[in-house]
Design goal:
The complex is a heterodimer of chains A (156) and B (259). Helices cover 60% and strands 1% of the residues of chain A. Chain A has 156 residues and is mainly alpha-helical. Chain A has one domain (44-156): Fumarate reductase/succinate dehydrogenase, transmembrane subunit (3 helical TM bundles of succinate and fumarate reductases, Up-down Bundle). Chain B has a five-stranded mixed beta sheet with strand order 2-1-7-3-4, with helices on one face. Chain B has nine helices and nine strands. In chain B, helix 3 packs parallel to helix 6, helix 6 runs antiparallel to helix 7 and helix 6 (193-203) crosses helix 9 (243-258). The chains are: A mainly alpha (156), B alpha+beta (259). Chains A and B meet through strand 1, helix 1 and helix 3 of A and strand 1, strand 2, helix 3, helix 5 and helix 9 of B. Strand 1 of chain A pairs antiparallel with strand 2 (38-46) of chain B, so a sheet runs across the interface. Bound molecules: protoporphyrin IX containing FE, iron/sulfur cluster and FE2/S2 (inorganic) cluster.
Chain lengths: 156, 259
């Protein structure tokens, strides 16, 4: 720094402290009298609740899925076309996978939406990242749903 | 001369056995000189039972008068001297030097880092622009809202009803919580813990009738749902307010209101 007093006990330190570096945090976009515009919906409330409720269901669905696919009955080496065809012959496993697909995708997408809201600095970046996210989510959910419903075990 | 004089004049250097040498590493910023902030070390002799605020005073008064910081009451009441000390938000006037440093042979083993609170624009040295913080505070309408005629007597309240929001009445608006919140660091449009604490103080006050309005405000995009329960605010609060709990209570009130 520029201002040095004559006391020689004062030393100027150029860099940050080596064993305790404090990250510099730039001020974020600020709140003013005009921002933000009120939306008067319960969207964020439902989003928050959905994360928790879908999380509870995902514990069962995802852990069960991993157990069946990767651990039981010879582990991952048993997974083949025939194995999948056998499981999807039952409406129970079709429903399991369908629910898991939708919940995990919506849960993951809403989680990423939160992260984009947190970290995107400019409105434009925010908008386009979300568009990319929503496109990818819709595409994956629709494709997965299509496969579950149109799966043909006799395909050649 | 009739004026009474002291028998013994104490000379400097004497009776100074209680003093220790401590280095204060302070993050300086002066926009008139440089666009960059930088750390500056001040080595001082001070009683370790003094507070960081006393050290800042000593530096300002004896070493470098340009050091700039806010303080008013110096006793943890006005909320003006929240700063980041050794990486944690605290009030300089409530932080004893001996509690945050290790002293060996009369010398502190490590420098004490002092910098402005984060997430608000630094104006100079340790002084930040508090306007966005107070804007969020004003936005939750932190005042009594009632309908109907003014009562002729005081508004009575049972001890239990008073207890309901006792914790959140203690806030001194120091911004230690809001400026410790990672969500606020990244997006200052979030109301932040302090505004929610002060909304809580009225939402759960049996005499107040504006709770519904305040809940509506905090239900929006930048309200309580952005809170990620990191507990930084609870750790930072110099008044010991259970900030995260207050935020969760507002969330709960919103959910039970809906269902
Ligand atoms: C195993 C069961 C799971 C549970 C119990 C669970 C629970 C949760 C909860 C409660 C949140 C909200 C956190 C907050 O608001 O602070 C969350 C966020 C999130 N979840 Fe999950 N989740 C699970 C599985 C998954 C899966 C399979 C994915 C990926 C598809 C995922 C991706 C995310 C993401 C990206 C976030 C946002 C992270 C953040 O807010 O910082 N989760 N999860
Ligand atoms: S809740 Fe605590 S940390 Fe936050 S502004 Fe009030 S007194 Fe300061
Ligand atoms: S100077 Fe008033 S709270 Fe510290």
């Amino acid at each position: 720094m520029q201002t040095m007093s004559s006391t020689d006990s004062i030393t100027v330190d150029e860099g940050y402290d080596a064993d305790n570096p404090a990250p510099v945090i730039e001020p974020p976009r600020a709140r003013t009298g005009k921002t933000p515009k009120a939306t008067r919906t319960n969207f964020e409330l439902y989003g928050w609740l959905f994360m928790r409720l879908s999380g509870i269901l995902l514990v069962v669905l995802v852990l069960g899925h991993l157990l069946i696919q990767l651990v039981l009955d010879g582990g991952v080496s048993k997974v083949s076309f025939a194995f999948v065809a056998g499981r999807w012959a039952s409406p129970f496993w079709m429903a399991w996978d369908l629910i898991m697909l939708w919940l995990a995708m919506l849960h993951g997408a809403n989680g990423l939406r939160t992260i984009i809201n947190d970290y995107a600095q400019r409105d434009n970046t925010r908008f386009w990242l979300k568009m990319l996210l929503y496109t990818a989510t819709v595409f994956t959910v629709l494709l997965g749903t299509l496969v579950i419903f149109t799966f043909d075990p006799n395909i050649t | 001369m009739a004026t009474p004089t002291l028998d013994k004049v104490s000379s400097p250097g004497q009776d100074a056995g209680h003093l220790v040498t401590v280095t204060f590493r302070i993050r300086r910023f002066n926009p008139e000189v440089s666009a960059e902030a930088s750390w500056q070390d001040f080595e001082i002799r001070i009683d370790p039972k003094e507070r960081v605020l006393d050290a800042l005073h000593q530096i300002k008064w004896e070493d470098d008068g340009t050091l700039t910081f806010r303080r008013s009451c110096a006793h943890g009441i006005c909320g003006s001297d929240a700063m980041r000390i050794n990486g944690r938000n605290r009030l300089a006037c409530k932080t004893l030097i001996k509690d945050i440093t290790e002293i060996k042979d009369g010398v502190a083993t490590k420098p004490i880092l002092v910098e402005a609170i984060k997430g608000l624009t630094v104006l100079k040295d340790l002084v930040v622009d508090m306007e966005p913080f107070f804007q969020a505070y004003r936005d939750v309408m932190p005042f009594l809202i009632t309908k109907g005629n003014e009562p002729t007597r005081e508004r009575l309240q049972s001890a239990e009803d008073r207890e309901r929001f006792d914790d959140t009445t203690k806030c001194i608006l120091c911004a230690a919580c809001t400026s410790s919140c990672p969500v606020f660091w990244n997006d200052g449009q979030y109301f932040g813990p302090a505004a929610i604490v002060n909304a809580h103080r009225f939402i759960f006050d049996s005499r107040d009738e504006g709770g519904e309005q305040r809940l509506e405000i905090l239900n929006d995009r930048d309200g309580v749902w952005r809170c990620r329960t990191t507990f930084n605010c609870t750790d930072a609060c110099p008044r010991g307010i259970e900030v995260t709990k207050a935020i969760q209570e507002v969330k709960k009130a919103l959910i039970t209101r809906r269902f």
